[in-house]
Amino acid sequence: MNWEWTPQMRQVRDFLRYFAKTEIRPISRAADVAHEVPISFLKKVKALGISMEPIPASVGRGGDGEGVGEEQDAKRVRQTNRIAVVAAEEMAWGDAAVIITLPGPGLGGPPVSATGTPEQKERLFGVFSDPEPKWGAYALTEPEAGSDAAGIQMTATRTKGGYILNGTKTFITNGARAEWTVTFATVDRSLGRRGQRAFVIEKGQPGLEPGRIFDKMGLRASETSEFSLVDAFVPDENLLGGEAYYEERQAKGFRVAMATFDSTRPLVAAMAVGIARAALEEATDRLTQNAALSLGTPLAEATRARLGQMAAELEMARALVFEAASMADARQPNAKVASMSKAFSGQVAMAICRQAMDLVGSVGALGDSLLEKWYRDIKVFDIFEGTAQVQRIVISRRLFEEAGAER
Ligand SMILES: Cc1cc2nc3c(=O)[nH]c(=O)nc-3n(C[C@H](O)[C@H](O)[C@H](O)COP(=O)(O)OP(=O)(O)OC[C@H]3O[C@@H](n4cnc5c(N)ncnc54)[C@H](O)[C@@H]3O)c2cc1C
Question: Exposure check for the chain: N or C terminus, fewer CB within 10 A?
Answer without folding.
Answer: C
